Amino acid sequence: MAQGLLQIAIFCAVLVAVRPLLGGYMAKVFTGQRVLISPVVAPLERLTYRVLRVDPARGQSWKLYAGSLLALSAAFWLALYLILRTQTLHPWNPEGFHSGTWDVTFNTASSFVTNTNWQYYVGETTMSYFSQMAGLAVQNFISAGVGIVVAVALIRAIAHRRGAQLGAPEGTIGNFWVDLTRALLYLLLPIAIVGALVLVSQGVIQTLGSYVNVKGIAGGSGQLALGPVASQEVIKELGTNGGGFFNVNSAMPFENPNGISNFLELFLILVIPVSLTATYGRMVGSRRQGDAIFAAMAIVFVAGVIVCYVAEQHGTPAQHAAGLHTAAFDGSTGGNLEGKEQRFGIANSSLWTVVTTVTSCGAVNAALESLTGFGGLVPFANLSMSETIFGGVGTGLYSMLLFVLLAVFIGGLMVGRTPEYLGKKIEAREIKLVALGTLFTPLVVLVTSALAVATKYGAPSIVASGPQGFSETLYAYASQANNNGSAFAGYTGYVQPKPGNLGAFGITFADLLGGLAMLTARFAPILIVLAIAGSLLSKRAAPAGLGTLRTDTPTFVGLLVSVVVIVGALTFFPALLLGPVVQGLTDRLF
């Protein structure tokens, strides 16, 4: 176990070391400063503005910013839907895959536009190479960029002082088209290109060739799926998207061949969300503010990793009751290895489980439904905190900033002063929006889960019974609403119709309900965040006084962690008791 803890510690140390470097780089990019790659990228940036007919000197109000964001997202949703529905017309379709059904395509288009990458399909048996590259991979870049620029817009509003140089025209939160162009050209594309080359060097495949027929050592035959995997794998992780080229995701050796690729992919998932806290500190003019937010996130993250690792190393009550040996021994890590890759072991599987559920990534290198009851409680708890612990690229920071404002409000009430954050008063309008923003996603999760469990239309999609079936259903909608994309398996959007059940209609119900959950829980909070940005932008900043609540101290970090955990616990604790907690206290596997 000590060896596993050392691996986890090294991973965390690398992230902490890179955080100020990438964070400072992003601060320069989004404040319009010159960076190392400017001589190469700046001409492409100017060309993009000319093609889009965008004046980078013109800023936007929060309403115009939101309108541009929604228009772009709607256009890409439609484009992706059409691509997936016309696969028979595609180039680079050597296996001759047909188009999917309209309801699964609705769910898939909604999934990738919202940075969720929830998959009700098997990529290697349904998607042409053109769909994977021009449809899914492109949208991985766009949806990631959208999340980043919303966070940047909110940072500008919080940090705005008259005359401050924040990379936006005075009195605006910026220009959506400029911010998105910079996010793509200066950040996502350069890292993705380098990362893809490294992945190829480690054995991740990249080809447009046809699938290969192979014979096994026992005489059987089969087909080996190939494709342009590395180019999609890198942005899948870097953009916290998560949808794999192959159905088994990062447990597939063609996506994740060895320990080096596993480490790199884990690093790519967290590096931007972690570094954005440093970007925040630089842009607001106080690195301690960014450090405080990072500390709050890191405390919950590390706690989750330790709990999951210990639970999986211990094994399940069912395994112990059956007399199975779960202690570590020579050649094996021991523990609960059901559903895990022996080449990654308990430590890296537990670390990946937590990394993928504190972010909105959803990529997996082990089967989440095979976790122990208490190990499985960790991803549930992470999703219940609504992307506040690092979260997706951009979404994690702006979600946490809502909780920062809520903690400031509570702290202000405790000391009997008007709440203020970085010199700006937090008044009734902001608190109403903050409350709506923090509760909207949990509300979507609980309503959709209730509809799936309590109505006859959701029944065909629930495969398992008892606490496992409830856990799988709750997790499915928590994952979709939080734009995560990972799954506890079991709950499905495709089942074979049987006499006496609702068959195809039940399938369509899951596809549509999930798609609507993803769309509403993605864009409603974004609109709320931009509305808060517009409100804060217009406020004058006053210097801090003796009674001002400091937000860069360990005391405030403790308050912030408490607020995040309490809100998540109060919202989801009763539901979690019915699922993973019950399962963890019994000797049942299913």
Write the layout of secondary structure elements.
Elements: H1 2-30, H2 38-52, H3 62-85, H4 102-113, H5 123-126, H6 129-159, H7 176-201, E1 212-215, E2 221-224, H8 230-238, H9 259-283, H10 287-314, H11 317-321, H12 345-358, H13 373-384, H14 395-415, E3 420-421, E4 424-425, H15 428-454, H16 466-481, H17 503-537, H18 554-584
Antiparallel strand pairs: 1-2, 3-4
Helix pairs in contact: 1-9, 1-12, 2-7, 3-4, 3-6, 3-17, 4-17, 6-7, 6-8, 6-14, 6-17, 7-8, 8-9, 9-10, 9-12, 10-12, 10-13, 10-18, 12-13, 13-18, 14-15, 14-18, 15-16, 15-17, 16-17, 16-18
What order do the SSEs take from the amino end to the carboxyl end, as H and E?
A: HHHHHHHEEHHHHHHHEEHHHH
What proportion strand? under 5%
* Number of β-strand runs: 4
What's the gyration radius in Å?
23 Å
Determine the N-to-C terminus distance. Answer: 28 Å
* C-alpha geometry: globular
Q: Which stretches of 5+ consecutive residues score pLDDT under 50?
A: 495-505
Strand order of the largest sheet: 1-2
